[in-house]
Here is the input.
Amino acid sequence: MTSAPSLVTGRSARRAQTQQRLMNSAVEVFAERGILAASVEEICERAGFTRGAFYSNFADKDELVLEMLRYYADQDVHKVEEITDLLRSNAEMKGNPPGILINMALSRLFGDPSNERSAVLARHEMHLYAVRHPALRRPYQRYTEDLYHRVVTLLDGTLEAIGLEFSVDVPTAVLLLHGATNMMQMESLLRDVPPDGSAMEVLLKQITRPRPDRDGPAVCEA
Here is the structure.
């Protein structure tokens, strides 16, 4: 009787490892071929599994995509916590300009195309896939809404640390910054060069202002 929980735990751990390997291989295949063109066979072959391993974990490719969204959502929670601490430290101790800080935050959250090419492309592919498949639109919307909420928390904390606040409503600011991040990522991938953050700094100057409760000048004005 005492061995049953360990057996269940062992099976659960192996199942989780199998799912993770399948999702990791899916990221690579989705980035190379797009989700529509990617086949279950390719994903399994890349992961070193048979089709049986796939279908014992996911009903179909759509369920795999949904599970990947849930995984990304969980990862984003931890990322936001880590990034917030990192940015506050950089803002308060190093006096970095706000544009650099925001670029740092968004690239860590959404992926840096310089060293996360497959992950960045896979995220864009998942967005397009949700647009093309009505059944996935609402789950994807829930994921993005939750992600935006976390981004708001992240950016608000960062700006507060450097004595700034948004001069436009926060949802609009997040959409503008996310859109700029997407364009920077795609241009970086297209031209095979590191992301250029100059546009982000220009945008940030237009949508932020000094906080009225700030004692003394903001860091970016030093």
Notes: The longest strand covers residues 164-166.
